[in-house]
């Protein structure tokens, strides 16, 4: 009896595994908001980034090099360093806090299941990508990302985001932001390789690493070292940058607005 | 400095120096879609008692509501398509069905729903169309061709198609609400109360639309007007209760959407205005409908209340879909949004309403919709509007 049951279960497992190759079966298996199956990429790897904020000076070299490498439209950014001035309650001094931001390549990315055509997908190596030939530009993923990591590219009229420079990783190069970082604050690597620098640092600083908005259960894979936990959620800061307005109370446009 | 990070104490005094400006990703087209589709499914529900259950007293209201349901169902998908940045790729929805996405499910529900509503209207309108077969010109041509034969529409077929359409309308109601409410990234959307208010403001708007059509089509059926008035009153009370429940539960368990709303109202003058406006409009709607229920002499101005009901349904969607997008997600403050004049702004809004008006005018011209289920075709007998003086 027990044997028969085991045999039956084996068969079911086999049938189910085989059925996974048939696209229609995914329709029956996947529930609403479940992650669709990952596709492409190296299944042995899990790319992640560690940002050592102790080394970040807010020079925006990453922002600029990403812009040059990935040709994002002006005013839209795949990565940027948010900068804050915080009054220290201990010393009373104003101190600066830098927060480099990019796609978190989450393990439970909220942008992926919402995509109505699976143009946004996650590779086996954890990198979240957009197939711009398939994307319909509905911007549902832009709404679903809690980190503002996505935008609609005005030129392609499709969703755009950080790819961890997957095209450079494939060629054995580092992402543009990592390569240009003057302080060496950004470390990218394979978490599945225990010998990689990122694996070693994750091991060394296990109790100190933080991710952004962990309560959303997105399981981000960009880890911050030296992070102030008051910045892991939307900061309660005054947006001084936007206080300068024209005579009619409208925001002044970017200086390149006419370009 | 330690690896554990800086420690500045508990009260943050902080200024954001550098952050990008994040624009909105869904345009007013989305508001138009949610408005029109909400009117459509709720209008269809107002058709049920008269057309599907066959209640004599509700037949005039069903005539009005059917016109509302069909016209909005035709225009709504157009504005939805326009909100795509790549509208010509809409076929990708069907080439790559994605069961994990509410939007993908919606792409299946929506055309089925629109098809069912049009089919239902055809079944109901073909009998009065046949009666007009003798008319000359294009009207006669359409009256002879569209009914596809002289057979009488069987009652059972209307009931079956009606029930199918109503079931599909529920799928549209559920998907439009869930699509927005599942998004954790925007705390103000991420509440199960949101679909409920979408539904109730949809009913308020649909009843308002029926009142407005009642007035401006010259049908001026007093009973239908009264019934719609009662529906506006009941739906307004229910919407108020749901909103109160949302607030009370949110304050009790510190729900994210309520916290985000209170924060926005506290920090932003525009949000304070929106909150005052919403409460004022709700109270005005309640008092107006209530007063008209009590004082019969006021009922000639029902259409003003109808317009207010439509405004409430539209403004709610504008606040939810547009204003919420201006709340920064992971940066400080609020993003500026100014309505552009082009097709992604004002022109899109005016254009959608213009298209809706065109659909109503065309239907009104060629379909004797007032004569459905044994009604009198007011368009053919001018005396229908002579009974009451016109107040414009």
UniProtKB/TrEMBL annotation, chain A:
Protein name, please?
A: 4Fe-4S dicluster domain-containing protein
For the keyword Transferase, the answer is: no
* Swiss-Prot/TrEMBL keywords: 4Fe-4S, Iron, Iron-sulfur, Metal-binding, Signal
Q: Which GO terms describe its molecular function?
A: 4 iron, 4 sulfur cluster binding; metal ion binding
Q: NCBIfam families, alphabetically?
A: DsrO
Q: Which residues form the signal peptide?
A: 1-30
Instruction: Please list the residue ranges annotated as the 4Fe-4S ferredoxin-type domain.
Output: 47-76, 126-155
């Amino acid at each position: 009896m027990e044997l028969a049951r085991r045999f039956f279960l084996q068969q079911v497992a086999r049938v189910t595994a085989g059925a996974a190759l048939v696209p229609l079966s995914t329709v029956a298996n996947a529930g609403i908001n479940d992650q669709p199956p990952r596709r492409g990429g190296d299944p042995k790897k899990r790319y992640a980034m560690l940002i050592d904020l102790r080394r970040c000076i807010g020079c925006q070299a990453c922002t600029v090099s990403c812009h040059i490498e990935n040709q994002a439209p002006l005013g839209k950014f795949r990565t940027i360093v948010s900068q804050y001035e915080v009054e220290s309650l201990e010393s009373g001094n104003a101190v600066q806090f830098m927060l480099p931001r990019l796609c978190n390549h989450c393990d439970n990315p909220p942008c992926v299941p919402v995509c109505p055509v699976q143009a946004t997908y996650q590779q086996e190596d954890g990198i979240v990508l957009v197939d711009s030939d398939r994307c319909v530009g509905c911007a549902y993923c832009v709404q679903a990302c809690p980190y503002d990591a996505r935008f609609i590219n005005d030129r392609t009229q499709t969703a755009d985001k950080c790819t961890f420079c997957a095209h450079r990783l494939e060629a054995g190069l580092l992402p543009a932001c990592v390569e240009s970082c003057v302080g060496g604050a950004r470390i990218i690597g394979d978490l599945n390789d225990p010998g990689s620098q990122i694996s070693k640092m994750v091991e060394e600083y296990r109790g100190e690493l933080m991710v952004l908005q962990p309560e959303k259960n997105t399981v981000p894979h960009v880890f911050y070292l030296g992070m102030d936990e008051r910045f892991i959620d939307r900061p309660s800061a005054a947006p001084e940058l936007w206080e300068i307005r024209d005579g009619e109370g409208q925001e002044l446009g970017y200086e390149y607005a006419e370009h | 400095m330690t690896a554990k990070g800086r420690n500045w104490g508990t009260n943050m005094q902080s200024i954001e120096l550098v952050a990008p400006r994040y624009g909105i990703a869904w345009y007013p087209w989305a508001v138009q879609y949610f408005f029109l589709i909400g009117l459509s499914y709720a209008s269809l529900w107002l058709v049920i008692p008269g057309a599907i259950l066959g209640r004599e007293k509700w037949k005039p209201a069903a005539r009005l509501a059917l016109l509302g349901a069909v016209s909005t169902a035709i225009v709504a998908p157009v504005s939805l398509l326009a909100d795509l940045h790549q509208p010509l790729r809409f076929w990708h929805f069907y080439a790559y069905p994605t069961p994990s996405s509410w939007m993908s499910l919606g792409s299946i529900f929506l055309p089925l729903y629109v098809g069912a509503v049009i089919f239902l209207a055809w079944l109901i309108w073909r009998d009065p169309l046949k009666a007009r077969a003798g008319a000359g010109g294009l009207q006669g041509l359409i009256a002879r061709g569209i009914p596809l034969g002289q057979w009488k529409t069987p009652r059972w077929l209307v009931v079956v198609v009606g029930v199918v359409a109503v079931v599909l309308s529920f799928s549209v109601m559920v998907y439009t609400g869930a699509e927005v409410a599942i998004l954790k990234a925007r705390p103000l959307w991420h509440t199960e109360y949101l679909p409920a208010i979408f539904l109730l403001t949809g009913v308020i708007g649909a009843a308002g639309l029926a009142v407005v059509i009642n007035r401006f089509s010259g049908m001026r059926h007093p009973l239908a007007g009264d019934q719609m008035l009662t529906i506006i009153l009941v739906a307004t009370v229910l919407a108020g209760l749901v909103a109160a429940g949302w607030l009370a539960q949110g304050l009790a368990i510190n729900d994210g959407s309520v916290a985000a709303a209170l924060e926005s109202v506290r920090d932003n003058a525009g949000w304070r205005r929106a909150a005052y406006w919403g409460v004022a409009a709700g109270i005005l709607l309640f008092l107006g409908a209530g007063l008209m229920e009590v004082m019969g002499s006021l009922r000639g101005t029902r259409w003003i209340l109808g317009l207010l009901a439509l405004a409430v349904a539209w403004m709610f969607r504008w606040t939810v879909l547009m204003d919420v997008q201006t709340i920064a997600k992971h940066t400080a403050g609020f993003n500026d949004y100014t309505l552009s004049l082009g097709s992604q702004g004002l022109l899109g809004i005016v254009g959608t309403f213009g298209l809706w008006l065109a659909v109503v005018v065309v239907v009104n011209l060629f379909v004797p919709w007032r004569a459905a289920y044994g009604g009198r075709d007011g368009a053919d007998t001018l005396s229908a509007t002579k009974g009451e003086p016109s107040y414009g």
